[in-house]
Amino acid sequence: MSLKLRIISPEKILFIGDVESVIVPGLMGEFQILVNHSPIISCLEAGRVVYDDAQGRHQLNIASGFVEVKNNNVSLCVEL
Questions:
Q1: Nearest C-alpha neighbor of 49 from the set 61, 41, 40
Q2: At residue 9, does pLDDT exceed 90?
Q3: Residue 38: pLDDT over 90
Q4: pLDDT range class, residue 1, cuts 50, 70, 90
Q5: How far apart are CA 34 and CA 18, in angstroms?
Q6: pLDDT by residue (tens digit) across 54-77?
Q7: 3-state SS string over the chain?
Q8: Residue 4 C-beta-side C-alpha neighbours within 13 Å
Q9: Cα 34 to the chain's mean position, in Å?
Q10: CB 78 within 8 A of CB 44
């Protein structure tokens, strides 16, 4: 089982795909999202989003944003 990750910015879609995990820069520190994570909506601060897919580990620097997790779907709306 995997997570469905979608990362969008106001300008474009940055990534859509299946991932094993996502690490995001929350307001109170980084936190990791794994399969079957509890539903959550959280603001994000400047930092690095890290996600692992079949091609390996990827990183994206963001200025701010928010994350929503529900039913193994992870949506990130970010400012770069």
A1: 61
A2: yes
A3: yes
A4: confident
A5: 12
A6: 999 999 999 999 999 999 999 999
A7: CCEEEEEECCCCEEEEEEECEEEEEECCEEEEECCCCCCEEEEECCEEEEEEECCEEEEEEECEEEEEEECCEEEEEEEC
A8: 4
A9: 11
A10: yes
